[in-house]
Design goal:
alpha+beta, 3 domains, Endonuclease, Chain A, 303 residues, 4-stranded mixed beta sheet, 3-stranded antiparallel beta sheet, single chain
């Protein structure tokens, strides 16, 4: 029984669980002395042979902090795969004082049941609450990136985040101001990206004062759908495509993408393609290219 429970807890067991299985305090101590258990935090043990991992460290902190404790902030964001950070960060009810070695502990007065999720075997704040909390420990750029990742994975919607933010902001939740600023200044507005590169491209175009394009524009010719492009200036028939790392994940995907581009060109569209390196490392060059093509086609139309 103990091994089965530990398997679902990243190789961990709490002292209360072991006592519930019928083990006496003396037996628990003998297991510790024999190396069958290893103390991770007071009252939380790792089974011998269970490999130490980051998830295990977070799960151990949540177990040690007691009922109602949740992985949160940077740890919550990593669990939801919207931010990369090795921190171990949890939230506990306001009245509880918890000190754990190597763990950042936040005390919260509003850890409602609605904010609780379970992912990868760890109790964690839900994605919307996690985004708000991130604003109290990270800057706007990192929060914006986390929001875009959450939208890409369909963990949240902009409308849902705004609703959650309004409720938490009324209670004076730290971090709400940062997320609000991110939402208000988001170049894609309420649109959900298909990749992390799309919001970055939108930010490049806005930062360089270029006209706002139509996002995820459907191109049709005689009522027939040719394809959907990432960004478009439909009046000038200019398409902007951004190619992230997974854009051509297979030969079939590459072939379909090339055929779609050929159909666009055959229908009179100018297609500009930019890679992750272009958008992230050479944004000025990207903007100059778009500006030059826009100017050239506007001039051609006037002539």
């Amino acid at each position: 029984m103990a091994a089965r429970v530990a398997c679902g807890q990243h190789g961990l067991l709490a002292r209360a669980q072991l006592l519930g299985f019928g083990l006496s305090p003396g037996t628990i101590q003998r297991w510790l002395d024999a190396g069958r258990l290893e103390a991770v935090h007071p009252g939380v043990y790792r089974l011998a042979g269970a490999p130490p991992t980051w998830e295990q460290r977070v799960a151990a902190a949540v177990l040690a902090a007691g009922p109602g404790a949740l992985a949160s902030h940077r740890s919550g964001a990593r669990i939801w795969a919207i931010h990369d950070d090795d921190s171990v960060e949890i939230s506990v009810p306001q009245r509880r004082v918890v000190r754990l070695r190597g763990v950042v502990v936040h005390r919260s007065s509003d850890l409602e049941q609605a904010a609780v999720s379970r992912r990868r075997g760890i109790a964690v704040t839900n994605p919307m609450r996690t985004l708000v909390d991130l604003g109290s420990v990270l800057g706007a750029a990192a929060v914006e990136d986390a929001l875009d990742r959450a939208l890409e994975q369909r963990l949240v919607t902009v409308a849902g985040v705004e609703t959650s933010l309004a409720a938490l902001a009324r209670r004076g939740r730290s971090g709400a101001g940062v997320l609000r600023a991110v939402l208000d200044g988001r170049a894609l507005g309420r649109d959900r990206p298909d990749s992390l590169l799309e919001p970055r491209m939108a930010n490049v175009l806005r930062a360089h004062g270029l006209p706002r394009p139509t996002f995820q524009h459907r191109v049709c010719d005689g009522g027939r759908l040719i394809g959907k492009v990432d960004f478009a200036y439909p009046d000038l028939r200019i398409a902007l495509e951004v190619d992230g790392f997974g854009s051509h994940s297979s030969p079939r995907a590459l072939q379909a993408d090339l055929e779609r581009q050929n159909r666009l060109v055959a229908s009179g569209w100018t297609v500009l393609r930019f890679t992750w390196a272009d958008v992230v490392r050479r944004p000025d060059k990207v903007a100059d290219t778009v500006r030059h093509v826009l100017g050239s086609l506007v001039t051609a139309e006037r002539c």
